Amino acid sequence: GSFKNPCDKTFLGSEVESELEVKALANFIPTHFDIKLYLTIHAYSHVAIVSYSYDYKTHRNELNEIVKGATRVLASLYNTKYNYGPGATLVCCQVSFNGRAVLQKIFDEVRLVDVLDSGDSAHLTLMQRPELGVTLTKLHCWTLTHYSKCVFMDADTMVLSNIDELFEREELSAAPDPGWPDCFNSGLFVFRPSNETYNQLLQFSSEKGSFDGGDQGILNSFFSNWATTDIQKHLPFIYNLSSVAIYSYLPAFKQYGADAKVVHFLGRVKPWNCRYDSKTKSVTGDSQDLPMLHPEFLNMWWDIFSTSMQPLLAEHGVVIHSEPVCQSDEATEAVSRIHVGAPPPPPPMSSAERKQKWEQGQADYMGADSFDNIQKKLDAYLK
Fold first, then answer.
1. Whose CA is closest to 1, among 46, 66, 56?
2. Which of 6, 14, 105, 302 has the most CB atoms in a 10 Å sphere around its CB?
3. Lowest mean pLDDT among 22-31, 102-111, 311-320, 321-330
């Protein structure tokens, strides 16, 4: 594989260094390759939509940087000898500056998604249904219309083998949910970017909401015929193998588990909610839910993360913060931490600053400028 790429067939030719060589390659690729995209959700903080793809139309520079790996999901994909590399990323405003720097070093396109400041129908929908804030950020993946087809993946998934064949499926192709098989699990699905679909999803979200409070409820209601129409849109369970389902139906896992393509670490405890000993390559944790994570896949996740992802994060001063049930012994000893959970509350704004925000249409409708607070202020003046 060229371009320092661990894949065999991702790029043609030798490594390029100059801008002219990059532009020449960028002009060559669109006439020889289809446009395809992998997409994942990566929670550096509240939400960050992180896509990994090689955008053959818009790619212009830093080809040598795209294979270093910005997320553990991307690193696991590299290990499968996939044929399509990284390109675009969507992030929300809660992602730290250092976290964005890592993404900008690797991906061709970094697009900030801020529903509260979008000025479009997504903003209006959020005002009507504030509980859907995270979900509305995720739905922005349908706005990546410079790609013809995408595969969406959650950050708590791990790719075990090549999944290029997913691009042969149509929207909306997904695997059944282990808890209710008549619904699909939204941790991995095939879709076609479309502004029309995006706007329809926003309108649907505003009118119907979500039966489970998240994107899976909305998407299953919107694509309501998934369970009964085209069987070709039913992905085999091996494309979204739930770590919880492994123990709920162990005989089936013993029979089919060796063919698994993607593992999904469903549940409250994630691989990063553990302690990892890099010397013994063992994973431990305090949570009673930890035994539900298959040890083979759990160790595989940490091995990939520590070798492919952690060095890049450390280079930029980004390390996942340890919660009570999660820490990396190696990381806490070697690198200073930054918190990637909910960001600390900003300092109170002055009256002049709040007035300026109002005039710019950036009122804090969910906080200080909420209707309840405004009504309390008016009541206080009228007394």
1. 66
2. 302
3. 321-330
Structure-block tokens of residue 291: 């035994």
The number of residues making up the chain comes to: 383
The identity of residue 154, as a single letter, is: D
| Residues in a beta bridge with 159 | 262
Q: Of 166, 153, 129, 188, which Cα lies nearest the Cα of 74?
A: 153
> 64: number of CA atoms within 13 Å, CB side?
9
The answer to whether 56 and 33 are in contact (CB under 8 A) is yes
Spatial CB neighbours of 215, under 8 Å, sequence gap ≥ 6 = 134, 135, 138, 139, 186
Q: CA dihedral in degrees (164, 168, 170, 175; nearest 10)? A: -50
Q: Could you tell me if 333 and 319 are in contact, meaning their C-beta atoms sit under 8 angstroms apart?
A: no
| Cα-based angle 213, 191, 27 (whole degrees, multiple of 5) | 135
| Radius of gyration over every alpha carbon of the chain, rounded to an integer in angstroms | 22
The answer to whether domain 19-242 has CATH 3.90.550.10 is: yes
- Per the CB < 8 A criterion, the answer to whether 113 and 90 are in contact is yes
Domain range summary for the chain, segments of one domain joined by +: 19-242, 351-382
> How far apart are alpha carbons 39 and 113 in whole angstroms?
15
Q: Which residues of 23-45 are buried (b: 16+ CB within 10 A; e: fewer)?
A: eebbeebeeeeebbbbbbbbbbb
Q: What's the N-to-C CA distance of the chain in angstroms?
A: 75
Strand partners, 106: none
Q: What is the DSSP string of 4-16?
A: T-SSSSS--SS--
Q: How far apart are CA 199 and CA 350, in angstroms?
A: 36
159-168 pLDDT, tens digit each: 999 899 999 9
Strand partners, 259: none
pTM for the predicted model, two decimal places = 0.63
